[in-house]
Amino acid sequence: MTDHTTAQTATDTFVAHRNLLFTVAYEMLGSAADAEDVLQETWLRWVKADLGQVSDQRAYLVRITTRQALNRLRTMKRRREAYVGQWLPEPLLTTPDVAEDIELAESMSMAMMLVLESLSPTERAVFVLREVFEVDYDEIAEAVGKTPAAVRQIAHRARGHVDARRPRRTASASETRAALESFQRALDTGNPQDLLDVLAPDVVLLSDGGGVKRAALSPVVGAEKIVRFCLGGSAKVEAPITCEPTMVNGSPALAIHRGGEFDSVMAVRVEDARITGLYFVRNPEKLTRVTAETPLTLR
């Protein structure tokens, strides 16, 4: 095989698995920009590999990506400790078909990504590879540098941690869309009771401005407080606020414009037809993917 043929084979294989590798990195990091950097590092190592010695190219690529993501995740912890206000994952514009893959859509939802933030780097890697992508324990062990037995224990511990914090039942895309439509109508009318009707009593709002845009520095807890936050914030804005439906992280969401300019994204967590979590991302550095012309197909 000529060098040119080998290089082309390496390129074709990487491109074929790129969406999978990006999704693995993103679910481990919660940042599309960092996931792209991990893919670049993976590519640099992949082109140096002896393909003749690689029996399973997909597994090999996932292994490289996981190791690079783990390295970056450990360094990102210090960056997040210095972050101004609440940190939320970077929202991704996705195609509607992602919502049809229920397990994938749940795993990359804002609510689940925040649960994953509470895991250790190794627990997060094991959970993502095993629960989302069904990688076998031997492959995961090679990726994270543990024995298969240790990986099984880590997977069990991570699964228990996540199960204790995930919604009792994952809302469908249609249920989430209906709740968002009710929420949007209530915002448009400015009627506090309409908002209270769609919000669960113990709903929590997290807003991420990154120190660049105005946002609540701490969680806003309780339906009445959130109603005051939403309606009070709208009253202070002279420019008109409009909301457009979109698909973010595999679930319906709202793209919010102020004075005709794209401003933020609102994602939600829905249980029993009422909103239990609001995730309001205003940090401009996290919104580039949402403004992209082509939604991302994640695998």
How are the secondary structure elements laid out?
Layout: H1 3-29, H2 32-46, H3 57-81, H4 96-100, H5 102-107, H6 110-117, H7 121-132, H8 137-144, H9 148-163, H10 173-189, H11 192-198, E1 199-208, E2 220-221, H12 223-236, E3 241-248, E4 251-258, E5 261-271, E6 274-281
Parallel strand pairs: 1-6
Antiparallel strand pairs: 1-2, 3-4, 4-5, 5-6
Helix pairs in contact: 1-2, 1-3, 2-3, 3-8, 7-9, 8-9, 10-11
Quick description:
This protein is of the alpha+beta class and 299 residues long. 54% of the residues lie in helices and 16% in strands. The chain contains 12 helices and 6 strands.
How is this structure best described in words?
The protein is an alpha+beta fold and 299 residues long. Helix content is 54%, strand content 16%. The protein is built from twelve helices and six strands. The radius of gyration is 20 Å and the shape is elongated. It starts with a helix and ends in an 18-residue tail after the last strand. The mean pLDDT is 90.
